[in-house]
Amino acid sequence: MILKKLNILLIFLLLSLCINTIKAQDIQGNLSQIEVDNLSDKEVANYWSKIKKEGYTLEQALSIAKTRGMSELQAQKLQTRIRNLGNTSLSKNEEKVNENEEKEEEGLYFGLTGEEKDKEEKKEKLFGYDFFNNPNISFTPNLNVATPENYIVGAGDILSVDLWGAAEANYEKKVNRQGAINIQGVGNIHLIGLPIKAVRAKIKNYLKRIYSGIGASSNSYNKVNIAVSIKEVRNVQVSIVGEVKVPGSYSLSAFSTVLNSLYAAGGPTKNGTFRNVRLFRAGQKIADFDFYDFLVNGSEAGNITVQDQDVIIIKPYEKLVTIEGAVKRPGLYEMKESETVADLLRYCSGFVSNAYKQNIVIERVSGIQKEIVEIPFKELSIEKLKDGDFIKINEIADEFSNRIIIAGAIFQPGNYEYEENLSVGALLKKAEGVTREAFLDRGIIVRTYDETNKETISFSLRNKNKNLFLRENDSIYIFNKEELKEKEFITINGAVNKADKFDFMRGMQVEDLIVLGGGLKDGADSNTIDVSRRLKDGSFETISENFDLKAGQNLEGTASNNFILQPFDVVSVRYLKGYTEQKTVFIKGEANFEGEYSIGAKNEKISDLIKQAGGLTKFAYIEGAFLTRKNNALEDEKQLEMISDFAKKDTLSVTSDEVKKTFKIGINLKKILENKGIENSKFDLILEEGDELFIPSERQTVKVEGEVLSPSLVRYEKGKNFKHYIENSGGFSANAKKSRAYVIHANGDIKTTKRFLFFKSYPDVKPGSVILIPNKPENVKKISTQEIIAITTGLATLGVLVKSLTDK
């Protein structure tokens, strides 16, 4: 039964495929029976999508359709349907087919659409090739311009004859297949083969028979004016063959030229010629079009208007030459037989500014190998090129023949022109002289002979240096005073508002430096100032010289006994003895007056803080009180750095970010309050800056987390043990590590499970406690079933082997 259903499904799929294939062949093959009105929007959209994928324009596709039997009427209907695709309400699938058409802003392009999948390079080296691949330009003949005077009227043109003045009339007549138009009262007027200028004259003469005012003078009252124009241009059939991308027969506007026709066919291929596009009419060659001449010079020579049954032939190229390097438009160029290197340079727009022009080197194929041909600059217009020539234009060396460089502490550093007998003094005058920061005792000239041989010449700027002459490529450097000595500074630290390093200035006193440092801080002792100074006494025993000074009251006067600071001095301003900024602690929770308190004495304890806060409320849960302390001491910071360094090397991989900045300290507040006032109590801790004492309210639950079946909050019951809370959380899970279970009490104390032989002693549980059950670590050395089987098999084999040996 299943096989029968599969056969029916396969037959259905094959029939659907055949129907779709027949529809596609109807559209693409014999089109004489196609009725465009019967096609759905989806079929029209699919047809248009296929046209674009194959690289055709709409007009090219319609021309091909006509050659395959589609009538002119059906072709016009198809064109209208395709143009209206963007305005049709389609289904979602149909909209996807037409999304590219909806993005077009200015209608359909004449020529390639730019969506071809030829796998062409984005920028083709062959000069002129990209012109025909650009979808953003249109070479459709402009039908809105005045009819050219050399336009030849043919069958299918629609003429408009307008009369005004003493008589008014309008005639629109189509030139019939016999080449004539028929005007009532005049008869047939044969116009085929005549230029538009002759057509106007002939129609005017014929109409004089019934409108005598046509020949009257311009100021006559019975003057009849006449105007003859072409309202609609006929299409002509042009065949484009040879090395073009889309060869075939094209129906084009009669205004089309050779270039329009070539663009409609997609342009020449890479093997086609751009230089010798030939137009044949009635078997005779009547024009040669050079596309390069059009691109470079704008010449229209040979780009004549095509006529019906014309044939355009694109033959293969004659010569292709490559030019690269220092030219404005490097690439691949097609050359004629008689053209020279100078012609090639004209097509590539000539040399760039730094091109080496004196000797052009050509790599040329000669027989079975290549050869090098050198062309002097004066012979570029003589040397003819050959197919396959490769020219590389090099750049000139980045060297100067007459340069002098001056740099450093001068007003106008840079490059200067070398002149014969140019002295250092004269060059300094050109550079507007030296700055005030210049070191006058010594300047340096670096004289370069070659890449490896250089020489230095020193001179003094205090002399005029009129007789110290320079040579080509000399470099002169004038030093700045600051470059030649260590930067001098002076340092202030301690009880000042802006401890920092400052530039040394002569005559600076201690008071001056304190002012630069933002003045004294509150608590600074102006009578205790230390100055440390570098020693230069040649002794190995002393490191620095120290001075004890006093600053003037309000930083006035010279209380420092006119002590003058020297470079690199370090000034330290001390604080008053016993000066200490306020330190604060916090009490939160069930205290009568919770908040921030200042520490009055260095030995102030937890009990003192509770006393300041007015004692505890009746809701305080004393057993759950805890203290948090910041890691803000300098020694703690150093300890954190050590921990971080060890953590990087440890297998636990604890990072410095994981090191806590605060710690929770478990305290026994009940004993603290009982032993209040007792000296050296181990329970009553001394407070530190930033400590926070938290007094929670009464707790009534116990939290169970980790490897239990249902982690939860369990109501606390007095007298119930550890297992009671585990059972109320569903019991241990299969991965529970029971022996490592522990309890964190509300005050921060941690109690672990104790073990003796096979017995476990679980910790007590209090209100607010958290029970944590860890999981079992994964046993990475656990033996798998396969390994057990392998070991067993090996042992059995070994046993058989031993038995066989003992039997012998």
At a glance:
The protein has 808 residues and is of the alpha+beta class.
- Mean pLDDT metric: 78
Ends: how far apart?
Answer: 68 Å
- In the CATH scheme, the class of the largest domain would be Alpha Beta
CATH fold-type name of the largest domain: Outer membrane lipoprotein wza fold like
Count of the separate structural domains: 7
Structural class: alpha+beta
Report on the biggest sheet.
5 strands, mixed
Q: What is the name of the CATH architecture of the largest domain?
A: Roll
- Residue windows where pLDDT falls under 50 for at least 5 positions: 1-29, 87-113, 115-121, 651-657
Regarding quaternary structure, what we see is: single chain
Number of helices: 17
Q: Helix amount, in percent?
A: 10-25%
Shape: extended
Q: Roughly what fraction of the amino acids lie in strands?
A: 25-35%
- DSSP strand count: 37
How big is the Rg?
A: 52 Å
CATH homologous group name of the largest domain: Outer membrane lipoprotein wza domain like
> Which strands sit side by side, in order, in the main sheet?
7-6-10-8-9
